[in-house]
Amino acid sequence: MKIIHRKDQCMGCLACATACEKYFTNDENGLAELKGGKKNSKTGNYELEVTVTAKDKQALKDAESVCPVHIIRLEG
Known about the structure:
Structural class: alpha+beta
Largest sheet: 4 strands, antiparallel
Radius of gyration: 11 Å
Helix content: 10-25%
Oligomer: single chain
Strand content: 25-35%
Number of strands: 6
Order of helices and strands: EHEEEEHE
C-alpha cells in the first residue's frame, strides 16, 4: 500500500493522527506528518510504501476519511 500525504495543504487538526497514530503524528509546527514519509520531488507530496495488516489498513482508511481537507490518499 502507498500512503500519500499532501502536507503542504495540512490545516493541523490532527484528525489523521487520532485515527491512525501508527502512521501519523504532529510535527514541530503542529501539522500532521506521515511517519517515515519521503518527499516526492516531482509532486511535493510525502509518500510511504508499506505492507499493512487488516487493522492498520482500516486505521489508514479512517485517517483518509476524517481528514477535513482530503489530503491523504491510499493506493493499493
